[in-house]
Amino acid sequence: MDAWRPKDGVYAVTGRGFNDRCLEFGDTSIDWKNNSINGGEEECKINRTTDTAPGELRLDLTCTDIERPTPHTEIIQLKKINETTLFLRETQNGKFGRPGAQFAYCPAATQKAYVNARKKPQ
Environment class of residue 84 by beta-carbon count within 10 Å: exposed (0-12), middle (13-18) or buried (19+)? Predict the structure, then answer.
C-alpha cells in the first residue's frame, strides 16, 4: 500500500468563503516536520499516523485549546479526494459527533505568508 500524506500547509473548508478563509490562514494547518495539526484555537501533536486504506489516514493526537488547556486525546481521519483536497473528520471529546468536511489546500500566496508568519525572529 502506498502511503499518502497531505502536503504541509494551510487548508480551508471548500465552498463559499474559501478564499476569505485562506486569507485568515485557513481552518487547519498540517506540519509533518513538527508532527502537528492545528485548527482555530486548538493545537494538536500527532502521536501516531496509521494508514487505514489507500488514501486514508488516522491521526492519534494529544491536543490543547483555550477551553481545555489540559492535554486530551482526539482522533482525526483524513481521506484523499485529489492532490489538493481532502475530507477531514475529527472527534470531539473522544467521539465522532460531527459529520466532517471537505478541505482544500490554500493558494501559494497564503502558504508563503503562513510560513513567514511562523518564522521565529532571529
Answer: middle
Q: What's the CA angle centered on 61, arms 59 and 63, to 5 degrees? A: 145
pTM: 0.89
The per-residue pLDDT for range 35-84, each reduced to its tens digit, is 999 988 889 999 999 999 999 999 999 999 888 879 999 999 999 999 99
Interior angle at CA 56, CA 52 and CA 62, nearest 5: 80
Length of the chain: 122
